[in-house]
Amino acid sequence: MQQKQLTKPLSIFFLFLPIFIFLAGCKGPAEQAGQEIDETVEQQRERLQETGEEIERLREELAQVKEEHQKAKEELAVARQQRQQALEETQKGLNEEIPVQSQNVQEQTNQAPQKSQGQQPQ
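Predicted structure:
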C-alpha cells in the first residue's frame, strides 16, 4: 500500500514534468515585458549620459563665452579711454588754435581800417 501511495505523486510529477520544462523554455509575456523594460531603461540611461555630456560641453562653451565677453568689455573700456584722451587732446589743440586765430583776425581787422584810412586821402 505504501508503494501505491508513493507512485501516485511520482506519476503526477512525471506527468507535469514535460509541461514545466516546456514552459521554462518559452518566453512568456511577463518575461518579454521585463526584457522590454530593461531595454527601455538602458536606452534612457544612454540618453541621460548623452544629455549629461552635452550639458558639460555647453557649460565649457558658456565659460569660454563669458571669458571672451569679459575680454571684450576690457578692450572696450580701453578704447573708450583712448577715445576720451584723443578728444581731450583735440579739444586742447583747438583751444590753443582758436586764440591764435582770433588774435590774427583781430590784427587783420585792425590793419584793414588803417589801410582804408591811408587810401582815402588821395
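Summary: The two ends are 175 Å apart (CA to CA).
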